[in-house]
Amino acid sequence: MSDYECPVVEGCLNGYENRKVIRFSTKIDNIGNRDYYIGDPYNNPDQFSFTNCHGHPHYDGYAEYILFNNDGVIPANW
């Protein structure tokens, strides 16, 4: 499967309208004295999602992204 098909297969896109792509980064601040280690995905399958078309596990619950309009309101169709 191509990289272009993954967003459709994974449910990130639906419909056939024109879209604007928003790209941004995210990070986690480690405030402890040791490296942040989330564990081996295959030993902790309840913490990871394995159903993606690009072949590597995703850590569930890492971040939540919410889109706000210019007035600071979540759009009704979000």
Polypeptide structure, described:
- It is built from one helix and two strands; from the N terminus they run αββ.
- With 78 residues, the protein is low in regular secondary structure.
- Strand 1 and strand 2 form a beta hairpin.
- It has one domain (1-27, 35-78).
- The protein is flat and about 45 Å long.
- The two termini are 28 Å apart.
- The protein has one helix at residues 6-9; strands at residues 48-49, 58-59.
- The longest helix is centred in the N-terminal third of the chain and has 4 residues, at 6-9.
- The chain has a two-stranded antiparallel sheet.
Give a quick rundown of the structure.
The protein is low in regular secondary structure and 78 residues long. It has one helix at 6-9; strands spanning 48-49, 58-59.
| Coarse morphology | flat
Main pleated-sheet profile: 2 strands, antiparallel
Count the E strands: 2
**What portion of the residues fall into strands of 2 or more residues?**
5-15%
Distance between the termini: 28 Å
Please mark out the parts with pLDDT under 50 across 5 or more consecutive residues, or reply none.
Answer: none
Order of helices and strands: HEE
- Percent helix, as a range, is under 10%
Mean pLDDT across all residues, rounded?
Answer: 81
Widest beta sheet: strand line-up: 1-2
Oligomer: single chain
Secondary-structure content class: little secondary structure
Radius of gyration (Å): 16 Å
Task: Domain count, please report it.
Answer: 1
